[in-house]
Specification:
By secondary structure, this protein is an alpha/beta fold. It has two domains: 240 residues, Nitrilase/N-carbamoyl-D-aminoacid amidohydrolase (4-Layer Sandwich), CATH 3.60.110; 252 residues, Rossmann fold (3-Layer(aba) Sandwich), CATH 3.40.50.620. It contains 17 helices and 20 strands. The longest helix is centred in the last third of the chain and has 23 residues. The structure holds nicotinic acid adenine dinucleotide, adenosine-5'-triphosphate and glutamine. It catalyses: deamido-NAD(+) + L-glutamine + ATP + H2O = L-glutamate + AMP + diphosphate + NAD(+) + H(+).
Length: 535
Amino acid sequence: MNIALAQLNCTLGDLAGNVSKILHACQQARQAGAGLVVTPEMALCGHPPQDWLLRTDFIQACQQALASLATQIYDMTLVVGHPAYLDGKLYNAASVIRAGRIVATYHKRHLLNDGLFNDQRYFEAGGQPCIFEHDGITLGLAICADCQLLPHLQSTRQMGAQLLLVLSASPFRLDKLADRQQRVREGVLHTGMPAIYVNLVGGQDELVFDGASFAINAQGEVTHQLTAFREMLGKVEIKDNQLVPSPCTPLPDRISGIYSALCLGVRDFIEKNRIAGVLIGLSGGIDSALVLAIAVDALGSDRVRTVMMPSPYTIDISIQDARVMADNLGVHHEEIPIATLFKNFLQTLRPALEAFPSPSNPTTAENLQARIRGTLLMALANQYGLLVLTTSNKSETAVGYSTLYGDMAGGLSVLKDVSKTLVYQLCYHRNHISPIIPERILQRPPSAELRPNQTDQDSLPPYDRLDAIIAAHVEQGMSLEAITNLGYEENEVRRVLRLIHSSEYKRRQAAPGIRITRRDLGQSWRFPLTSHFLK
Ligand SMILES: Nc1ncnc2c1ncn2[C@@H]1O[C@H](COP(=O)(O)OP(=O)(O)OC[C@H]2O[C@@H]([n+]3cccc(C(=O)O)c3)[C@H](O)[C@@H]2O)[C@@H](O)[C@H]1O
Ligand SMILES: Nc1ncnc2c1ncn2[C@@H]1O[C@H](COP(=O)(O)OP(=O)(O)OP(=O)(O)O)[C@@H](O)[C@H]1O
Ligand SMILES: NC(=O)CC[C@H](N)C(=O)O
């Protein structure tokens, strides 16, 4: 017996498109000799549908799509993930379809409420395991987080299941792939029931589902491993009740996994929102260089444009490096000096600025440059039908080192969850594949170039310390005292935590960003705007 693992890239709300994708997978499976196809969690409607699940028109459309899908499955068995409305309650479900009808439906039991997934806001928890027969084997079902629910695994086993099918929508984050397999392995070893885990692939707003579907035999060994970050169909052969091992695709290493996640996140955001391409303000610095590399790898050079907008403080090598970078990647590059606009703005503002009695604030003129650039970028985006990619990294986003309506203007923040330290590692990784980022960009001290000889380190602690403190506080939830106990200087830690919590107002207005860590500064970070604690 062969089971096909349909590692699909579904689009949220595109019910007709998802149904044809699932039918196409069934057709491919048939050709590959597999009579049973398993899809990811919520493959019918995409995941996570969030508050669409509270809309009756959405749920009805899902029910109709499921009914239509069922009538088209006649010579095989399909296990598909979908929302199910029953007796006034909504469930996160997996249905077994055979000979044109639904023969069994399982309801997810382990509903998460962890900041990213709010299953408890939408769904009732299921109460029963679900098994079905196929080719003489008894199969049990689980949906994503269920595979860690030992009582569910045990009761499924006790009902006679010999193999567990897990329909999943588990997003990427650092170190997640091995972690996920370990969690599934624990359940397998606990029950002696091998598992096939089929994960969604593709970007959905901030989330990137990495796929990387796999099978684990009763001994806890990975027998099958599908490629990460790619839509594909895998096949698991079962002989004498055993999974027959097949050559496993290696999992990506830490840095190439992050790079692939960022590319897939950008590609799917642009493609699924039907946007023609992207526009990037290219400064000759490292952040915009990395964003450009990712954008070109994601979309191809013909869908990416760059603009260098020198101000009086932009040094020549920045202009040159931006040119070289754009040339290396073959993108359309423009240079639009902003010195005259900057001068005109200051002249126009002068009477009002001088009327203000207190000493002049240098930030006013610094931010004006960033805002002029934001305005020009948005004008070009309107003209060309493009989306502006913002370039602030996680270190800057955490401490508010960016200008509202300036360099924060844009539709997607590619590096929002990537610390400055990681920015460097990603650049070296990308240059190792082919040297596209000029060495000088990698070697120069980071600078906003908003005043003469400015460097980031004038305003912020060195990035290695800053990033460590941010990671300790944001990702690991550590307190001021706990971070100080790690050996960091108390005043510095206090200053960084203050900056983090004082810049919440900026993050609420920031573009969404692609999540790659346990706790990004988007949906998994929910702090009030008004709070005096730690400020
Ligand atoms: N709690 C609150 N809720 C809502 N709004 C609040 C607020 N507190 C201040 N504000 C408003 O926000 C304004 C301050 O924010 P904003 O105007 O953005 O400016 P601000 O944060 O004062 O300055 C931006 C900083 O980022 C640096 N920067 C800028 C651009 C790029 C880079 C880089 O290297 O990438 C660095 C720049 O050198 C400067 O240090 C206030 O004037 C006030 O109007
Ligand atoms: N001269 C410029 N021309 C075009 N875009 C610019 C210019 N200066 C800044 N930007 C845009 O604003 C963003 C913020 O850049 P800034 O130089 O202030 O700091 P940064 O965080 O060091 O970024 P980078 O490393 O890309 O320079 C840049 O990434 C870029 O998108
Ligand atoms: N869809 C889910 O149930 C997600 C479960 C869990 N957070 C994971 O990422 O694996």
